Amino acid sequence: MRKTVLVILCVAVLFCGACKHKKKKSHTPAPTSTITAAVTVPTSPQTGNITISYRLIDPRTPTVNADVKVYYSKNGGNFVPATQGAGGDPITNLTTAASPGASHTFVWDSLVDLGIGSFNIVIKIVPYETGTTNMGTAGQTTSFQVINAEATITVGAKVFDPKMPNSSPLQVTYRVNPSGIDFVMTVKVVTATGGTEVVRLIDAQTKAGGTSHTTTWNGKNANAQYVDTGDYKLRIEATYQGLPAWTKEEAVHIVRLGVVGIQFLDNGADGAEYQMMYHIRNTSLYTYYAIPSNKPEWAIGKNSGDVADLDTNDGLPRVLPSPWTNLNSPPQDATDPAGVEDDNYNLPVCYKRASKPKFQLTIGSNAASNITANTQLGCNYPITGMPIRVIVDSATPETAGANENISPAGTVNFIANTTLPDAVKKNTITYTIRFEYQDGGTWHQISGYITTNHTVYTIFDKPKLHDSSTNPPYLPWVKCVDIVCGWINGPATESQICSIVVNKVNTFFGIQYDTVSGACWYTTGSLSLQTMKMSDFIEDYDANTFTKVNCSDCACLTSTFANTIGVDHKALILGYTTGSIPLNYMIAIGYSDWIKPFGGWFSYHAVATKDDGASISDACCTLDCDGTPGSAPYTPLLPVNEPYASYNAMLSSNPSSYGTYAKWRCGQQ
C-alpha cells in the first residue's frame, strides 16, 4: 500500500514538472525559422515618433518574406506591444536578404505608449515568416533614453490694453514637463498671422522642467514701442540636447479702450442738473461762455491734425484732464474759432443738493500707432465670442446690460449709486472706470482703470436769476457759485443761507460805503430795474482794487449771490418817489463808527427781500436794535429777514414818511 502511494506521488510530481516546463517554453518558444532580426540602437535621447532601424536576414535561397512584431520594455519592465506611428515600413510581408539583410524602419509612437516623462527603453523586434507562425530569431536594442515633454503657456488675460492707465504688464505662466530635466526655454510674442516675432521675453534660458515659471509682457516690441492693436500669440519653445522643440501658443488680443467724453445729465426728480457759465470767454469782460448743455463737461479728443481720439499722433495715450480751476473763463485755444478749448478739458458741474448724478460715457473710437507716427489704428474690438463691457465702480447702468458688448464710439448712461451731499458746497467726485471681457460665460477684468475727477457744486435749489432766463448772462456764474458754496460749505436752511450771504457781503470783500456821493459803483440802470455789473465787481475782487459801493450795489450783490444757489431774493427800493428817508444812527458797510450819513437823509435805500418786502435783509447798514436807535448806546444788528416794520423802525426816525418804490431780480453783466 505504501509503495503504491509513493509511486503515485512521484508520477504526479514528474507530471507537474513536465507541465510547468512546457508552459514556460510556450512564452519563449525556440525559433522555428532561420530569419533573424538585427536592431540598431537609436541615439539618446529620443522623443515622440521614434524611428527604429532594423535588418531582416534570411540565409536561405530563395529568401522568404517576413512579418514583424515590435515590443518595448520601459525601465526594465516586461515587453509590451509598441504602437506604430506614421511613416516607416509596414509590419507585414517585408523583404529579407542574406547578411547583412534587408533594411527596414519602424516608427514607434512613444507618446501614445509612454505619455509624458523620461524613460529608459529597450526595443525588441520578433520576425515571423509571412502568413505563418514560424518565428525567427528576435533582435533587440540596448537601453536608450526617451524623453517625452509637454510645454504649456497661459496668459493672465486674453484681452489686453497696454496703454490703459494704471495697467499692469500681462502675466505669462509657462511650464515644460516632465520634472527632473533642465530644458532650454524661449518665450516670445509673435503675430497671430504669419508668426512674425515681435519680442522675446525669455531668450534661451535653462530652466527646470516640471516647474511653473512666470514672466510678463508690457505690450511693447523689441524697440520698446507699444505694439499696434491686433491679435498676437505668446509662444514657448523648449529644447533638450538637440531634440526637436516642444512648442505651445496662447492667443492674446491687443485692444485700445478708453473714454473720450463724460457728459453730466439731468436726472429728473432724483437729480436736477443746472447749466453754468463763465463771465469771460477769452480775455475780455462781457464775452460770456455758457458751458454747453449738449456736450461733455469732461473730454479728450482730436485737435486739428490729430489722427485719433484716444492717443496723440506719436501713439502715446492722451493725458486725462484735471478739473479746470480758473473760475472766470474756460480753457483757451487760439486755434479754435471761438477761442475756447473744445477737445481736451474738464469743466465744473452743478447739481441740486442731494442729487444722484446721471452721466453719459462716450467710448473712444480709434487709436494711433506708436511704431508708425501719424497712423490711425482701429481699437480691435468687438472680438468674436468675447464681448467687452464698461463698468463704473460707483454707478449703475441706467438700462441693465447697456454697458455690455460695447463698441468704439458708443455711449452708455450711468446713474451714481450714492447721492451728492445734502449741502451747499463745492465737491470733488471721482469715478473709476474699468473694462472686462467675457470668455466662456465668465467676465474677466482687463488690466488697468481710468480715474476721472470732477468739480461738482451742490446748490440749494434751482437758480432764481433775472426772470429765470436760461441764456447768458443769466445762468449761474461759476465764480459766483464758487464764492457762495465756499461761504456756506455745508448743510443749511434757506434762512441760514440768507444770514450767511448778508453777513459775507458785509464783511468778506472789504468794501466800503460811499458816504460822500452815495453813487452806484457796480449797478446800472434805473431804480425800477437795476443790473449788477458783476464782471466789474469780480475783476476788482480778483485784483483787490475795490473802490466804493452804495446800497444798490449791496442789495444786488445779496440778491444775486442768493439767487445763484436757488434762494429767491429781490432788490427792493425804499423811498425815492414815495418820500425821503430820515435816518437813525447806523454803521455803514466798511466802517466802524455810528453815523447818520448824508446829513441824516437817504433819498432812497436799496435792500434785499425774499418775500416781496414782508422781511428785509440789508448788507449795507448795521442798525441799532436796542429800541432807541436815535441815540447812544447802540446795540448793533445786521438785518437779516427782519420784519418790514421792525427794520424800518431801526432804519428811520420816521418810518411812516416813505414807502416802497420797486422790487426786482437784479440783472447781471
Structure description:
- The chain has 669 residues and is mainly beta.
- It has four domains: 36-147, Immunoglobulin-like; 150-254, Immunoglobulins (Immunoglobulin-like), CATH 2.60.40; 259-459, no CATH class; 493-668, C8orf32 fold (Roll), CATH 3.10.620.
- The chain contains seven helices and 44 strands.
- It is rod-shaped, with a radius of gyration of 47 Å.
Write the layout of secondary structure elements.
Elements (H helix, E strand, L loop, with lengths): L1 H26 L8 E4 L9 E9 L8 E9 L4 E3 L20 E8 H5 L2 E13 L9 E2 L3 E5 L1 E6 L3 E2 L9 E8 L4 E10 L5 E12 L4 E5 L12 E10 L6 E9 L4 E7 L11 E2 L10 E2 L7 E2 L45 E2 L2 E4 L5 E6 L3 E2 L7 E2 L10 E5 L2 E3 L13 E6 L8 E15 L2 E4 L4 E10 L18 H11 L5 H14 L15 E2 L6 E2 L1 H10 L7 H14 L5 E6 L5 E2 L3 E3 L12 E2 L1 E6 L5 E2 L4 E4 L11 E2 L4 E2 H8 L8 E5 L2 E2 L1
Parallel strand pairs: 10-16, 22-31, 33-44
Antiparallel strand pairs: 1-2, 2-5, 3-4, 3-6, 6-7, 6-8, 9-11, 11-14, 12-13, 12-15, 15-16, 17-20, 17-23, 18-19, 20-21, 23-28, 24-25, 26-29, 27-28, 29-30, 29-31, 32-33, 34-38, 34-43, 35-37, 36-40, 39-42, 40-41
Helix pairs in contact: 4-6
